[in-house]
From TrEMBL:
SUPFAM superfamilies: DAK1/DegV-like
UniProt protein name: DegV family protein
InterPro entries membership: DegV, DegV_C, DegV_domain_contain
Organism (species): Deinococcus lacus
Key word Cytoplasm present: no
Annotated keywords: Lipid-binding
Domain of life: Bacteria
Length: 203
């Protein structure tokens, strides 16, 4: 199970390697990144421990990444400028006025999800996004906090706001270099998913 293929070549390399094993190995494009991918991999491992077949694990994973909420507050526009997502002028003006872009993972891609004026408002946008997501779920939620290097203060503030909400805590995690190269240092976000019971496997 691999990082979204739009951002990494690992999936395509894994496909080539899997072809050498005559169907016994299958590469899975998670359409996901950060800790959302980790949650998918952990569930796949739990299913394997219960004796699930490869096809059952693949079928269970289908669409699970898009069913999660992965939402970022970007701390600086500089890295979005370097990746071509915003112009140099927009980045300069945005940084000058403390604009914090909001991004979300959807369909294996980081997409714009609004903007906020200042860090406090950006963190509020994250909590509102999480609240809206929770209202659309029937079961309890599992919540992880994610942050880029330099985002320790922001993620601590976010935890303080959400600590009383009663979600299953999936920990606090530093994002890897692929995502950091897009969102930049200081960024912070949430990953949430509805807790799904493991299926009963008939053998």
């Amino acid at each position: 199970m691999h990082f979204a293929s739009r951002y990494s070549g690992s999936y395509r390399a894994a496909q080539q390697a899997a072809a050498l094993f005559g169907g016994r190995v299958q590469a899975i494009d998670s359409d996901n990144g950060t800790y959302g991918l980790a949650l998918q991999a952990l569930r796949a491992a739990q299913l394997a421990d219960q004796g699930a077949t490869l096809s059952e694990i693949v079928n269970d994973n289908a669409g699970s990444g898009n069913a999660q909420l992965t939402h970022f507050m970007v701390d600086t526009l500089d890295y979005l400028k370097m990746s071509g997502r915003v112009s140099g002028i927009s980045a300069f003006i945005g940084n000058l006025f403390g604009i914090k872009p909001m991004l979300r993972f959807s369909g294996g891609e980081l997409l714009p999800a609004g903007r906020a004026r200042g860090t406090a408002r950006g963190l509020q946008e994250l909590t509102q996004s999480l609240s809206a997501y929770a209202q659309g779920q029937s079961g309890r939620l599992r919540l992880a906090y994610i942050y880029a290097p330099g985002g320790e203060e922001n993620v601590a503030a976010l935890q303080a706001q959400l600590s009383s909400w009663g979600y299953e805590d999936a920990g606090t995690h530093l994002v890897g270099p692929t995502i950091t190269s897009v969102v930049g240092p200081g960024s912070v976000g949430v990953v949430a998913e509805a807790v799904r019971p493991l299926p009963l496997l008939r053998r």
